[in-house]
Amino acid sequence: MAQIGHDSFDERSRRARIAVVIASTVILIVIYTSIPSHYRLWNKLVQYLFFLPPVIAALWFGWRGAILSALFTVICYLPRLLLFWKEWPGYQPDQYGEALDLFLIGAILGVLADRERRQRQELEATTRQLSQTYRELQDNLEHLKRAERLSAVGQMAAGLAHEIRNPLASIEGAADLLTPGAVDDETRAEFVEIIKKECRRLSRLLTEMLSFARPRPPQFEPAAVPAMIDSVVTLVRASAHKQIEFRCEIAEPLPPVQCDPEQIKQVLLNLTMNAVQAMEDGGEITIGASRRNGNIVIEVKDQGPGITRENLEQIFSPFFTTKKSGTGLGLTVAQQIVTRHGGVIMVDPNSPRGTVFSILLPVERKT
Questions:
Q1: Which CATH number among 2.130.10.10, 3.40.109.10, 1.10.287.130, 1.10.540.10 corresponds to the domain 156-213?
Q2: I need a surface site. Which of 79, 131, 316, 367 has the fewest CB within 10 A?
Q3: Are 338 and 347 in contact (CB under 8 A)?
Q4: pLDDT tens per residue, range 304-347
Q5: Can you give the pTM of this predicted structure?
């Protein structure tokens, strides 16, 4: 039905254009015949206007329409021309030339219009094909995203079940040994501490799981990068062992960053704590900040054993961890936070040893 309606509209438009060409020719004929023949200048001006209908027909209908329009025009004003030629014989060759020009100009413009019309149709066909291909690509991408989400949900469920199983086994084993008279008071206190430790581990796991599954939207405000770094360093230094040294390399001055300060500090705290845990034998942790191409780059460098090439590809995957007590969600949540800020988090080897985590944040928030 839509195609029939479109065809009907095209036919009405075609008829309307034909009527315009005919009407314009008739109007010019009426004007031309109403001008006395001795007004040679006015007759000449109107004769030039007779080129308009063939030109319009050429643009609308191509060279065939232009020739038909020129033929109709010549037939209509031929009687007037015969009278004019009788009174002014010297103009007869010019009139023959003008009549021929109507056909030539109309045909040339018609050929050019046909070529332009074909090119436009080819372009429209190509555009439709590209649009169809784009829609199919979008559909395929949606299917891939859906499959990826389902796969991620399956991996998360498997990882979560695995992470929960170990603390539950420890809790169950400790609880079995807490029956009255089974152990002495000192051992009982040790098992109670195990239960508390594993409960805290489960709580941390569920907290990070909720942060990953339902992240809090960032509350954007201008924040000073040096102040956020100082706050994190102060907090980590209090809990790190004495063999760890902290060094800050902040390029001044740095503009404020549109971000959620608490979430960015959470990311920096996670990266810095990971660096501390990786450096069991001590060393130096460097936290630097600089401006680069309209962005702020924050780097956390450690001197630990580094990350293997195989693990670098999985470092941000949910539940992937190389630590015995890790949940595998810290870096995943960190990446999620940075992405929601319009930034990027990257990891590279540090020279000569260790790892460098880089956070790139735009200075101005893109809305």
A1: 1.10.287.130
A2: 367
A3: no
A4: 888 877 777 777 776 666 666 566 677 888 888 899 999 999 98
A5: 0.49
